[in-house]
Amino acid sequence: MSTCTDSNEERNIWKSRFVSLIRRYSLELSHTMRGRGFKLKDRCKTTQVHPSETSTSNPFPFPFPISKLHFPTINSILQESAFLPYGLPRTDSFEPPVELCLKSVDFVESLAELYRKIQMTQDFDKSLVYLEQYALLCSLGDPKLLRRCLQSARLHAVDVHSKVVLSAWLRFERREDELVGSSALDCIGRVVECPNAALLHGYDPNSVFDHCLCSNEISHFGNNFLSSESQEDGVVCFCIGNEEVNCIRGKIAALSAPLKSMLYGNFIESDKQRIDFTHVGISADGMRAVDFFTRTRRLDSCSPNLLLELLSFANRFCCEEMKSACDCYLASLLSDIDEALVLIDYALEERAHLLVASCLQLMLRELPGYLYNPRVLNTFCSSEARERLATVGQASFLLYYFLSQVAIEDNMMSKVTVMLLERLKECASERWQKALALHQLGCVLLERKDYKEAQHCFEMAIEAGNIYSIVGVARTKLKQGQRFLAYELINDIITKYKPTGWMYQERSLYSLGKQKILDVNDATRLDPTLSFPYKYRAIAMVEDSQIEAAVAEINRIVDFKVSPDCIELRAWCFIALEDYQSAIRDIRALLTLDPNFMMFRGKMRADHLVELLSQHVQPWSPADCWMQLYDRWSFVDDIGSLSVIYQMLINDPGRSVLRFRQSLLLLRLNCQKAAMRSLRLARNHSTSKYEKLVYEGWILYDTGHREEALAKAEESISIQRSFEAFFLKAYALADTTLDSESSSYVIQLLEEALKCPSDGLRKGQALNNLGSIYVDCNKLDLAADCYVSALEIKHTRAHQGLARVYHLKNDRKAAYEEMTKLIDKAQNKASAYEKRSEYCDRDMASNDLSMATQLDPLRTYPYRYRAAVLMDDQRETEAVEELTGAISFKPDLQMLNLRAAFHESMTDFSRALQDCEAALCLDSNHKDTLDLYSRTRIQARQNT
């Protein structure tokens, strides 16, 4: 027994020495390689760092062979240092970011209040109210909803400044600047984004979503001023140096009161026929242009330099009509950013309001590209710059809200971001504006580790009404070593208000022991869409060496909500498991979401890590990639498909069709910004006109411009008949309620598409869509043929359409079995479980819907179904609670409408009205909610 003990002790001693030697040797090797200028990539290329055990020169004098050690080998240690050089994350080293948006403790109530505010505001004053709506809805993260808010704000804008900023903001959201060959002044044909329409003052309620007239020149700028009456009683000669310019005295006098006083008043010039204007600051040509203007009221023959002279002359002598004409005409001539950067200071000095607006428009429509241009920064960033803009009515909360959002997105921690947020704070007048500006400034200062200033901003934001800013105060106290005070702050919020997921998530940061994991779990229970709790539990599992369990935990959220932080954590876990193929898949997906993604808390480029890991997996040929793509597409493995496409694009970066397919997958994963970037790249890499038009059409369609998308599709077809052009046109037309004639036309378009060359993946989608139209037309056999054909080319989603056909033929058993096939094949199964629930009895449906909710808590149908069942069973309170729990983290229009109906049936009219108002704040044109709202208001008045 003692011999065994001695042996174990000796073994432990050698083990300790071995690990020490390995660490020292690895450190020395690292220093040596750095000294030679080797990169990490180069260090991993050798297949053997140390001699093998058969070598005669073994640097480690062990009493037994290294290969027989029952602890990590040299190879695995070196691999870990290469692929996880900064170790795995720890639970005590990360925290969720403080959200930048306004976040209400009762979101439904806030939505309802805002809807009432919109309704009570006059149309021409609504623009800023819609901007407030944008700020409130930012927490939902729905780009289309936010775009609708900006469009409403632009449509109700009256002044030129607001129109300029909002049209530029809408352009920025579409990232039109990233389209090769696109000009800042290009227009898609809609008033809301038209740069020319933005320079026209006034509100026209009849122009809502009208097409602009960009093809017509803005001839009214400076050219259509009516001649005013004046005394034409003689000629006066203005001497400028050695030149003389003869003008009509009465017409010059009519330009302004000062000139009239000079020429007809008590000044000595009134008796002179020759007046010396040498030192007035205008050239002889400039004075001739003044004379020409007094006779014709036209400026179109003047060069830009002469116009600037006239503008200065008009300012000096208070010639308002001529100043306005010069201002307008110069604004209409401005065509590029370089001109704007040159003229902006001059325009500000001369207080040429429209010219300043035109210069600003070009600067704003070139964002983010020109954000850090010194002249642009000089125009916007300092307090003095803001005051200069204010003198011509071009400084506003709206302007700095837009600028600060661009800066935050580009580089949250930059000094420029801080300066723009400080200007935003100075421009804030309403409470919500102050709360937003102070909260965002606090978030930026917190990231910059300026904790005391950040705390001050958060506290002021709380005073302005943003309760969520208490989270910022708590974080700053934690950073300053005041954990208990931070805990008390959040605990107080939980006590005062109805608890929500983010409250428990925040308190978990300051809790200890079992209370910490309880808070994390409560956060998930109340809001299963929060990513931090899943990450925390996964990292805790990693710390307990339960890495497979950690992957399973992260999968719980990745399966319904794709976010870079969760994908990165899963990749780390796969590297730790030495599952390099899976790690590469996730990192390539990350690079699709963000081409410049940095791994390991920003310490290593993700694309570099892919290169390192790729040396340890079997490479794929182009043919292999296509086979892998078909397999993953068939398994409804969207992240796997993204990874394969990324690899294919490495070998063929100019392949537009791959970029387009990438965008489709990203849209399916609800990554809309990344999807739009892929679409723009597809358009930019297109080699033919007809192909570019198709991708431009999809960009327009995805940003809510359906008619413009159709026009692009038709133009593309006129050049060349192609699958994608016909498909785009059919898809856009089918996006409305179709009558029999329209359905026939869409069917014809899809049939034309299928006749054109394309790959099986896209043809499967077309067949699936064609089947859906046939079902709507009650042509079930034709629909079934389409779905079967789609399944033959691995379009797995066609199982769902075929199940629908069986159901309509009253064969629920076959429909159920068809959906079971989809569940068996698909990696993402939530929608399949939800759909299968329609083809079985109540108990089986309940099980399927519970599974759907478990897999994807963002799907709203299961909550509505369960609530309806409870309501049918007269369990009204439980029915309302079922919806309330889901609405707390996903305030969906349909769920709000259903809960309002429940409240109405329970004669709780005040809550019914509030739910209707909240729903209408999300979509003011929702007919069912409008009808319910009208009916409930009548009932409420009758019961008072």
Q: How would you describe this structure to a colleague?
A:
This protein has 944 residues and is mostly helical. Helices cover 66% and strands 2% of the residues. A 3-stranded mixed beta sheet has the order 2-1-3.
| Total number of beta strands | 4
How much helicity do the residues have? Answer: 55-70%
| Uncertain regions spanning at least 5 consecutive residues | 1-7, 13-81, 215-232
Mean pLDDT: 87
Distance between the termini: 91 Å
Structural class: mainly alpha
Q: What is the C-alpha radius of gyration, as a whole number of Å?
A: 34 Å
Number of helices: 51
Cross-sheet strand order for the largest sheet: 2-1-3
Shape: globular
Q: How much strand content do the residues show?
A: under 5%
The biggest beta sheet is recorded as: 3 strands, mixed
